[in-house]
Structures are given as C-alpha cells and as structure tokens.
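During the no-cost extension, the postdoctoral fellow (Dr. R.K.) reprocessed legacy sequence entries with the updated structure-token encoder. One reprocessed record is reproduced below for audit purposes.
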Amino acid sequence: MTLSQFNCPHCSGPFQVDTSLPTLQVACPHCRQPVALASEPPVSESPVSAPPMAEPPLFAPPPPAQPQIAGIPANRPQIRSPADLLPPGASVSRDEVEPQGAREHDAITDALRSRQALADDRASRKFVKNMIVWVCCTIVLVSILAYFLR
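Re-encoded structure tokens follow.
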C-alpha cells in the first residue's frame, strides 16, 4: 500500500490516496467534488503511518461583516415611515400615518395611569390613618402604664 498526496483542483485541499488501487477518480474529502487521479500529478509520497487529514467543517463560515458608513453600523435596522413611499411633493395627514388603534391605546394608557394614581393616593391615605391609630394607641398605653406605676 502506497499513499500519495494530492491537491484538489477545485478547493486546493490536500488529501491522500492509495495509489496501489486501480481507481481513476475519487471524491475530495473537503469539497466532495470528483478528482481524476490520472491527470493529477502526486505532490509528494508519504509513509503509511501518516496522520489522517482533518475533516472539513460542517458549516460554512459566517459572511464577512459589512463596513460601517459614517459611524452607523450597516446591520442597524432602518426606520422608515409611510411618508418615505410617497412621490415628491405629496403630503400625508396625521390620521393616515397614525396606526390603527393608537388613539384607543392612548385612552387605555391614560385610564390605567389615573387608576394607578388613585391607588397610590388611597395607599398613602391608609398609611397616614394607620400611623394616627398607632400613635393614639401608644399614647393610651403609656398613660395606662403611668397611672398604674404611681
């Protein structure tokens, strides 16, 4: 068994083939393209105990990053409005640009904020009432204790 090293004409990847076998064509282990051995001259002879070649990666590397233009990253989403689609000189009213349900959303948000303000007001009043009760109870207990300790 004699191993010969070849380079793939498609991907230039090196691979080894047993030249004692009568094969005329093999598949490249890197790009899986067929390589004709008769027309490909061997690069160098290597012994049988040569380490196996590394398998090609299963996934392609990520595409190169796009360059930044004027300090703005290229992958930043662009914000567009419906007015960008209009021909030059045309105008759009606010009702046409405003998404459907925006006014209802604003009304609901205002209602929730007013309910939260009322709840906060009730909580603060309850706290004050509880403090007054606590102070009154403390005064009564101190006066009872003072009466019995005389």
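The chain has a mean pLDDT of 75. Helices lie at 94-97, 102-149. The remaining legacy entries will be reprocessed before the final report is submitted.
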